[in-house]
Amino acid sequence: MTTIQPARASEFTVHDPGSGDLVGQYPVHTAAQVRDAVERARVAGAWWAGLSYQARGQRLDRFRGVLARRAAQLAGVIHDETGKPHSDAMLEIALTLDHLAWAAKNAPKVLGPRRARTGLMMANHVATVGYKPYGVVGVIGPWNYPVFTPLGSIAYALAAGNAVVFKPSELTPGTGAWLVEAFGQVVPEHPVLQLVTGDGSTGAALCGAGVDKIAFTGSTATAKKVMAACAPTLTPLVAECGGKDAVLVDADADLDAAADAAAWAGMANAGQSCIGAERVYVHERVYESFLGKLVTIAGKARAGSDPGAQLGPITLDRQVEIIRRHIDTAVAAGGRVVLGGSDTISGNVVQPTILVDVPEDAPAVTEETFGPTLTVTAVRDMDEAVELANATGYGLGATVFSRRGRQLAGLLRCGMVALDSVFSYPRIPSLPFGGCGDSGFGRIHGPDGLREFAYAQSVARQRFTAPLALTTFARTPKTDALVAKVMTLLHGRH
Ligand code: NDP
């Protein structure tokens, strides 16, 4: 079981969640040390921002090369710290490389200066908009995808010309240290990407250390604290938080594909995915057939800490009790276990669990479980499925199997939808990633993800003096009359 104990007052240890072995010891950086890192980052950021997009892109490409060549080593660190299977860690790295490539290549196109239309009244001007880096971005990351998730912010922030101070989860500091060390190899001149380690207090210190923006990924509860910590300095924030995603299965769906996708969405990474599905709403006409297929597929996925297991252990010890509570309260409220269940929990290993007949107000349906569990519920039609899927404060992602998929996607209140596939949108670097409501705000990935780490600067240059001088105290009544006329001509007919 994972145990985080202070080795000395100023240090903490990390243990492999599978074996319990000690895998690292890291400093708890103090607020003063975090401030120092941000000051160093400011100097480094000025240098980094002074490079061209192409020069930064070349460094990011070389960083990508290091990650690709040493992926097996990095996957080993991820496995040791999170317990996830080595092959899943490799997959996580592979997906990250695509984002690094995209951000490096597209930053000049998305953020470089472009012309804007001026309109008739300002036809004597040339208008341009460009994007400037904020300066120093503080990135606070979770442990569940300790490479893919923080690099979803870091890669885009760096490509936009910012320096980054990265605070990984206290469960995965070794993965963070590996990334920062690898980046330092390709950018040795200045500490453009730095690491600070510690617990939540180090993250809180980063929010108040003079950074120009915070990119937070983690739980909704912590996001609220981060937002409060950012408020006094009006530090902007992008918040990627939890979810309670649903899978919708229509009567006309390919049930084999839908069951396979639902099993993956619910169980992959032992259910510890922000976009993991926790609820499935199935058209009543195909409910039994779908459920049978889902149970068969999910029943073949075994959780454990041995190399043959497809699901690793639950990384965060205390999450096991939340998962157990959600299963037990669902059963107490009339739900039935058709696969797994709390009896199959052993230590921090939770077997895939499928629950049916669970009331919609049970915690298994309303709260983020973050374990390999799914509730499966029959619905009259897809209207009811949409209504139930939307009946949550979260709004991260959804998965839909239906011929009306595009239409249903439009009715879902969430930031991302996978149609006839699973976990597809985060694998497309040009698509923005993020949610609404309790799932947070702002976007990483894609053009929006680049713009998240830059502010727009508008420039309007006068090419010649306008015949109508409007912004002068020498304006005449004749000009005012003409403005009134033009105004009516341009807008009065609407
Ligand atoms: P937490 O909210 O517990 O922690 C997230 C990060 O915030 C960690 O680095 C943590 O440090 C840090 N932190 C804790 N307290 C504070 C504080 N007061 N001020 C600043 N930082 C603080 O989330 P988890 O790490 O447990 O991650 C799981 C959650 O992340 C789930 O809810 C999941 O859905 C969500 N998530 C969302 C994603 C998305 O893109 N929408 C992607 C991945 C996960 P420490 O760990 O050291 O306490």
Any chance you could write out the topology, listing elements then pairs?
Layout: E1 11-15, E2 22-27, H1 31-50, H2 53-69, H3 71-82, H4 86-111, E3 114-116, E4 125-133, E5 136-140, H5 148-159, E6 163-167, H6 173-186, E7 193-195, H7 200-207, E8 213-217, H8 220-230, E9 237-240, E10 245-249, H9 255-267, E11 277-283, H10 287-300, H11 317-332, E12 336-339, E13 353-356, H12 363-366, E14 373-379, H13 382-390, E15 394-395, E16 397-401, H14 405-411, E17 416-419, E18 436-437, E19 440-441, H15 446-451, E20 454-462, H16 477-491
Parallel strand pairs: 5-6, 5-8, 6-7, 8-9, 10-11, 10-16, 11-14, 13-14, 16-17
Antiparallel strand pairs: 1-2, 3-4, 4-20, 9-19, 12-13, 15-18
Helix pairs in contact: 1-7, 2-4, 2-6, 3-4, 3-6, 4-5, 9-10
NADPH dihydro-nicotinamide-adenine-dinucleotide phosphate (NDP) is lined by residues 140-145, 149, 167, 169-171, 199-200, 203-204, 207, 217-219, 222, 225-226, 229, 240-243, 274, 316, 368, 370, 396.
